[in-house]
Write a structure and sequence with these properties.
The chain is of the alpha+beta class. The protein folds into four domains: 165 residues, Four Helix Bundle (Hemerythrin (Met), subunit A) (Up-down Bundle); 208 residues, no CATH class; 117 residues, no CATH class; 116 residues, Tick-borne Encephalitis virus Glycoprotein, domain 1, CATH 2.60.98. Helices cover 61% and strands 9% of the residues. It is built from 22 helices and twelve strands. Strands 4, 5, 6, 7, 8 and 9 form a six-stranded antiparallel sheet that branches. Helix 1 packs antiparallel against helix 2 and helix 12 packs antiparallel against helix 14. The chain is globular, with a radius of gyration of 27 Å.
């Protein structure tokens, strides 16, 4: 297997290199563009074959490969054998390379089939091939998972890390790698346009759907990581500001900034330079994060051991950064806004720019904080380390500022906003915000979600809850107002007006949903500031009919009943049997445990018990059992947390992701009378069924389980529906007819139609200053 796998990787790198060469010379020699596409498609197929070969090696327990020995054993279940394919750094880099190659191949194939291909597209193939070549070279030269065992084959493997034996880890890494691969497409479109001298808006229009899909998958990937941390790490929270966690968040910040700027650039032709800088930054940050997690320069419980590939990532990162900067400087003058400018500080354009600047500042500050240990060593202080509380002190006010911008910017019109219009749209949201603030102040100390907690003013919650209420009410009233205005102007009934708004204003509706989701998440973050924690050593009763010792926390009462030993195929564990009496009078049996896996580099794990609810979660962990004692009578050190509004974080994340799908959904006119249209209708039915499944699960299971199933269902829907949306959005003109872009770029016709429809919605609702 080692020879076959290495040969596949070698040929993949060769074909990726051929795609680069053919692409660069495609404009001068007819037929080389097809050769470039063929080479890139072949490289993608070969890298997928390499992943499949590695997965087969795991499933067949091929102990001739060192990577299989390190991450599997004969007792590992089928699902975790498959997840072992990307559990280590070598396999994860191979999966990333395969995702990147497939994404590039699909992107070029869709451009060709949809009629959006244009002269000069060889540069697209060349630049995409360059990314694939770089990743394939790193895997082949420094992180080859097909390296053989140097000595005699072991009898069995080491086994998978116990912390990774969680269903979320089978999904979380692939989702992030798909997101990282998608960030490359907008960057390639921008770079190719600059090389060809096409500095208009065509590439921004075509990149929009890809950038939005990348942002959606980044959001979903971070959500799955948060769920895994909440369930598996056992400290009572879902984000610990670990360097590796931060590394996955940085591209999300940059991507969010880009999407806000791109919307203005697409409609008004403004901020194109900023858009180019942000789209390059978004594609480079995953490489930076990968270097961070594999270089050993920062300590992290998620990081891999220091890898020889880290130096290659640093070199590639430097080369790409320098190349992008050179392209930007080269085309700086032609990227200028020319006759367009921001006419008023009270406009959508100004709001988008301020929002993007804030996101960039947050990205820079978080990067510096994450790199603090390295910066400390450079300046002679080895003890520099930013604690989680330090991140919170910075991110809390930054988050409030972002939430404020989220509440205000959607209400601003393009070009300028009159005072009369602004007053007319902030009335109801302001009333909701004031009512929320009054309710908090009236709640008093230590009651519900009042103004004070722990003897101190809870300024974060006092600021966040009213702003979140403002955002939610503003978004909902925006939709209702759009329906009413359309019905009044056209004399249509409300159902017909709503149907028109859905057809013509899908981007706006998706944006409203995303903002509602973000507001719900911020409410959940603010709820975490009311977290309560209690701990103690509890003993079971030694007499029949008597209760064991108990612990009281925030209306919850837990009574220790004893312990029991459980033997499984992959692990042995000791469970604490705890009766939990909830504030509503119901009783539950919670069984947190200490688990010892039979194999793996990390064998000892703590499994938590979570009783999830809409208002608060009860989170219980067992830290230690003391003494042997009688059977099941060992005292236990228990720690309990009451986590308010965690459900809002999970639900808000899913609403945010659903908004992404709505914004990506293709226009209805592309569905009529085509096989592709039938596929879209089947996709829509599948997505609706998925959402129904989500609702049922969320209604009958815990919030964490419901969010997990929801994420899985929406992920499948996204892979299907998102693909159709991107293809339809990038198609120019009617089905089967190519349309050339207005400023030299291909495929702008359909994008122009879409933008014109959105502008019609904006003008109809008074969001376009005349």
């Amino acid at each position: 297997m080692e020879n076959l796998g290495t040969a596949i990787l070698s040929f993949a790198a060769i074909f990726a290199g051929a795609a680069v060469l053919f692409g660069v010379t495609a404009d001068r020699t007819p037929g080389r563009l097809r050769a470039a596409h063929f080479s890139l498609h072949t490289a993608g197929l070969l890298l997928v074959a390499a992943v499949a070969a590695l997965a087969y090696a795991f499933l067949s327990h091929d102990l001739s490969l060192r990577y299989v020995v390190d991450y599997s054993d004969s007792k590992t279940s089928l699902a975790y054998l498959l997840a072992g394919t990307w559990a280590g750094q070598n396999g994860s880099l191979l999966l990333w390379a395969a995702c990147l190659a497939v994404t590039a191949s699909v992107f070029l194939a869709w451009r060709h089939r949809s009629g959006t291909a244009a002269p000069g597209d060889g540069w697209l193939a060349a630049l995409a091939g360059l990314f694939v070549l770089a990743m394939a070279f790193i895997v082949l030269a420094f992180s080859n998972p097909f390296q053989p065992v140097l000595r005699s084959h072991p009898v069995d493997g080491v086994g998978l890390n116990g912390l990774l034996r969680n269903p979320l880890m089978a999904v979380h890494p692939p989702v992030l790698f798909v997101a990282y691969a998608l960030t490359v497409v907008p960057a390639v479109l921008a770079a190719a346009a600059l090389v060809r001298g096409e500095t208009g808006n065509a590439w921004i229009r075509e990149a929009r759907s890809w950038a939005l899909a990348a942002w959606g998958f980044l959001s979903l990937g971070n959500l799955l990581g948060m769920l895994w941390a909440y369930e598996e790490l056992g400290w009572g929270g879902y984000w610990g500001w670990d360097p590796v966690e931060n590394a996955s968040l940085l591209p999300w910040f940059a991507s969010t900034a880009y999407l806000h700027v791109a919307a203005v650039a697409e409609r008004r032709g403004l901020l194109r330079r900023t858009a180019v800088m942000l789209v390059f930054l978004t594609a480079l940050l995953p490489l930076f994060g990968t270097y961070l997690t594999r270089s050993g320069i920062v300590a992290s419980q998620h990081a891999f051991a220091e890898s020889p590939a880290s130096g290659s990532f640093l070199v590639i990162l430097a080369v790409l950064t320098a190349s992008g900067a050179a392209l930007l400087v080269w085309r700086w003058r032609s990227l200028g806004d020319k006759d367009s400018y921001i006419e008023s500080p009270f406009s959508r354009e100004a709001g988008a720019l301020v929002t993007a600047i804030l996101f960039v500042l947050i990205t820079a500050a978080m990067t510096a904080a994450t790199m603090a240990p390295l910066l400390g060593r450079v300046f002679g202080d080895d003890a520099v380390q930013i604690e989680p509380s330090g991140y919170v002190r910075f991110m809390a006010p930054s988050g409030i500022a972002l939430l404020f911008l989220t509440s205000v910017c959607p209400l601003l019109a393009y070009r300028w906003t009159s005072g009369k219009r602004l007053l007319s749209v902030i009335g109801l949201p302001s009333l909701a915000a004031v009512a929320t603030l009054v309710a908090q102040l009236a709640a008093g100390d230590e009651a519900g979600f009042g103004a004070r907690f722990g003897g101190k003013l809870n300024w974060f919650a006092l600021s966040t809850f009213p702003l979140a209420a403002f955002v939610i009410v503003a978004a909902l009233s925006d939709v209702v107002r759009g329906i009413l205005v359309r019905a009044r102007e056209t004399k249509e009934n409300l159902a017909a007006a709503a149907s028109w708004l859905v057809r013509s204003g899908r981007r706006r509706l998706g944006s409203d949903l995303v903002h509602v989701g973000a507001a719900l998440m911020f409410a959940g973050f603010a709820g975490a500031s009311y977290q309560r924690t209690e701990e103690g050593v509890l003993r079971p009763s030694m007499r029949a009919g008597a209760e064991g010792s108990s612990l009281q926390i925030g209306g919850w009462r837990l009574t220790y009943l004893g312990s029991r030993d459980v033997t499984g195929a992959e692990f042995d564990e000791t469970q604490a049997l705890v009766q939990v009496d909830a504030p509503d009078g119901t009783s539950h049996l919670a069984t947190p445990s200490l688990r010892e896996y039979h194999s793996g580099s990390v064998r000892s794990t703590a499994e938590v018990a979570i009783l999830a609810g809409v208002v608060e979660d009860f989170y219980l962990e067992v830290r230690q059992f003391f003494g042997a004692g009688a059977a099941g009578a060992s005292p236990a050190f228990l720690r309990a947390h009451v986590n308010p509004l965690t459900w809002f974080v999970w639900t808000g994340s899913l609403v945010l992701f659903a908004g992404t799908l709505v914004a990506l959904w293709p226009a209805r006119r592309r569905e009529q009378g085509t096989d592709w249209g039938k596929g879209l209708r089947r996709t829509r039915s599948f997505a609706i069924l998925s959402l129904v499944l989500v609702a049922l699960v969320a209604a009958f299971e815990s919030a964490a389980q419901g969010a997990l199933v929801a994420a899985g269902a929406l992920l499948v829907a996204a892979l299907w529906a998102g693909a159709a949306a991107v293809r339809a959005a990038s198609a120019g003109g009617d089905a089967g007819k190519g349309a050339a872009g207005g400023d030299g770029g291909g495929g702008a016709g359909g994008a122009n139609d879409r933008v014109d429809g959105e502008i019609e919605v904006e003008k109809m609702m008074g969001r376009w200053g005349e």
